[in-house]
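batch_manifest entry 22 of 60
target: Fructokinase
source organism: Mycobacterium heckeshornense
requested by: lab member K.T.
priority: normal
notes from requester: please return tokens only, no post-processing; we will run our own comparison against the previous entry in this batch. if the run fails, retry once and flag.
--- input ---
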Amino acid sequence: MTRGLVIGEALIDVVERGGRITGEYVGGSPLNVAVGLARLGHDVDFITHIGDDAHGGRIADYVKSSGAQILSGSFSAARTPTARVRVADGGLADYEFDLDWRLAATPTAAPPAVVHTGSIAAVQEPGCLAVAALVDAYRVSGTVTLDPNVRPALIADRDVARERLERLVARSDVVKASEEDLRWVDPDRTPEQIARAWLALGPSIVAVTTGARGAFAVCAAGRADVAARPVEVVDTVGAGDAFMVGLIDWLWRSGLLGADRRESLRRIGLDALIAALQAAAGLAALTVARAGPDMPDRPARDAAAKPR
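--- output ---
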């Protein structure tokens, strides 16, 4: 059985609009990826750091209901992390976190075909050190995917965080980042320049989301661009995570995941890359049309993929 492993934070998003709380949602970028992949029918294990409290129980129920599995050892936090999400006009979201990131759980299953991580888990000590070690251990057998999903409010030392991200980029096969991420990484270079520099470090694909303009990606064959799907935006919470899910899902269904497929992934052509980006953009469009980080399931994905 082919399985995926997702490593990273899980939390409760407390959403605020117009100065009042309008809802609480289970969130966290890696959690959204784990849930999204499971809802699309993939077998996924999730390693995180939450508390044995009401919020932690809600997260566990949410992950389990999606079909993913939280690995033992993930319930060791003193309290479950939260994020205050302030949604402005137009749906753009700003985050304020209460989070301590550590990693006590260890995988016990067979080596996964794909390992995903990113966001807070990739840069915040002490958990980021364990994340890097797991990536090193599992990239021997699986494809590594990474979404930096930078949270500047939680980064104490920008230079150290950038160095950690670059080391993970060099160990990854597929990297997805937003324009905002790349501006934070280096405001003096264009997103494409950074994407190409990252590609030279080792990945087979570096994809960049550009909001309402869509996305582009670079690979050995060149650059591919796709437009965003037209949609009425409710909010952008989880949009980037859905894009990452769509990208991994397309590669998974196309038989391009696993260390034994690394060379095939490296040789991906532009037509295939465009198809992957279109699938990812389609999943992101479904998500921004919903409130909160509500990842689409397989019927929604398949319905959206039908010719119009």
